[in-house]
């Protein structure tokens, strides 16, 4: 976890975050000064950022929105007041409405990010200055500390070459908390084709089969928000197991970057999970990230115990062999 300390100082009206990264200052600076890289870590898992403007000059503005898994939105704006590359920048950070204007009742703050070399890489010190103790308390109560920790936990991935981070490591599972897991898999192929393979029935049928000995008997894709999908599988021949299927609804479709769907076993009332698929391409390879939200710990552990991750790895191998050739 990059964040090593968080200091709330009501007397000086500041919130300070310390973080350490195993990368040189110039590399960390590049991540913070490129909107495409910022989009990969500025929002916490499940709330990715989209920067709609980014003028990285003194007096310039950066505008972004965070989109939650159910379509919730929160928007912000930075006004750059000081830039000393590659060691420091300062912004006026504001919550804004859909028109990009500061929102009444939400505190603005002056935020300074400083980057300095260490023996292991880079230390970042981020200090937010508030106008009042009440404004500081309001931001803390909104969960900014927890959100920042979760967001910055994604930065290590951004700072590495994508293949160095994930190539040859198969399907990986991270337990984020009692109800959230993150699954990642590097796929050797362009994002556009990986997106199609997740959304076009004729391609889905070629790879989304799980372990050998199973076939997909039904595939109805959701192509727009509000659409429902249905996927069903059955064992072939003497393969042990019973036919089953999943169904759900598309909540977000942002091709070819992100799709959020609900998922439940067919013919049941639940439990329902929330599956947040994100695709990121670098140098011809695509990192597939699936953030899954479970209703409770027991459901999480029950579903993981079915061998879900192993089945996903078998499917991803088939994807690379059958579709991305």
UniProtKB/TrEMBL annotation:
<feature type="domain" description="Activator of Hsp90 ATPase homologue 1/2-like C-terminal">
    <location>
        <begin position="190"/>
        <end position="322"/>
    </location>
</feature>
<dbReference type="InterPro" id="IPR013538">
    <property type="entry name" value="ASHA1/2-like_C"/>
</dbReference>
<dbReference type="InterPro" id="IPR023393">
    <property type="entry name" value="START-like_dom_sf"/>
</dbReference>
<feature type="domain" description="Activator of Hsp90 ATPase homologue 1/2-like C-terminal">
    <location>
        <begin position="23"/>
        <end position="159"/>
    </location>
</feature>
<comment type="similarity">
    <text>Belongs to the AHA1 family.</text>
</comment>
<dbReference type="Pfam" id="PF08327">
    <property type="entry name" value="AHSA1"/>
</dbReference>
<protein>
    <recommendedName>
        <fullName>Activator of Hsp90 ATPase homologue 1/2-like C-terminal domain-containing protein</fullName>
    </recommendedName>
</protein>
């Amino acid at each position: 976890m990059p964040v090593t300390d968080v200091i709330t100082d009501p007397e000086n009206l500041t919130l300070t975050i310390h973080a350490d990264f195993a990368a040189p200052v110039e590399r960390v600076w590049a991540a913070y000064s490129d909107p495409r890289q910022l989009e990969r870590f500025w929002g916490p898992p499940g709330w990715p950022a989209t920067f709609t403007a980014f003028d990285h000059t003194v007096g310039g503005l950066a505008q972004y929105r965070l989109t939650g898994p159910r379509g919730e939105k929160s928007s912000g704006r930075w006004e750059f007041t000081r830039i000393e590359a590659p060691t420091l920048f300062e912004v006026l950070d504001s919550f804004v409405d859909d028109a990009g204007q500061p929102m009444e009742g939400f505190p603005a703050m002056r935020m300074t990010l400083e980057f300095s070399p260490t023996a292991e890489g880079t230390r970042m010190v981020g200090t937010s200055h508030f106008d009042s103790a009440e404004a500081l308390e309001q931001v803390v109560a909104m969960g900014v500390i927890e959100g920042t920790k979760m967001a910055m936990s994604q930065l290590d991935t951004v700072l590495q070459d994508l293949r160095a981070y994930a190539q040859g490591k198969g399907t990986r599972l991270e337990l984020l908390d009692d109800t959230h897991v993150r699954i990642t898999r590097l796929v050797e192929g362009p994002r556009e084709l990986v997106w199609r393979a997740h959304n076009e029935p004729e391609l889905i049928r070629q790879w989304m089969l799980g372990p050998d000995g199973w076939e997909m008997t039904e595939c109805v894709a959701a192509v727009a928000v509000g659409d429902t999908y249905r996927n069903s599988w059955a064992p072939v021949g003497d393969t042990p197991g019973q036919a089953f299927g999943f169904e759900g609804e598309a909540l977000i479709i942002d091709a070819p970057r992100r799709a959020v769907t609900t998922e439940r076993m067919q013919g049941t009332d639940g439990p329902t999970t929330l599956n947040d698929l994100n695709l990121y391409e670098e140098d011809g390879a695509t990192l597939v990230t699936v953030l899954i939200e479970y209703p409770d710990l027991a459901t999480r552990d029950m579903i993981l115990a079915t061998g879900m991750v192993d089945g996903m790895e078998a499917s991803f191998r088939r994807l690379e062999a059958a579709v991305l050739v």
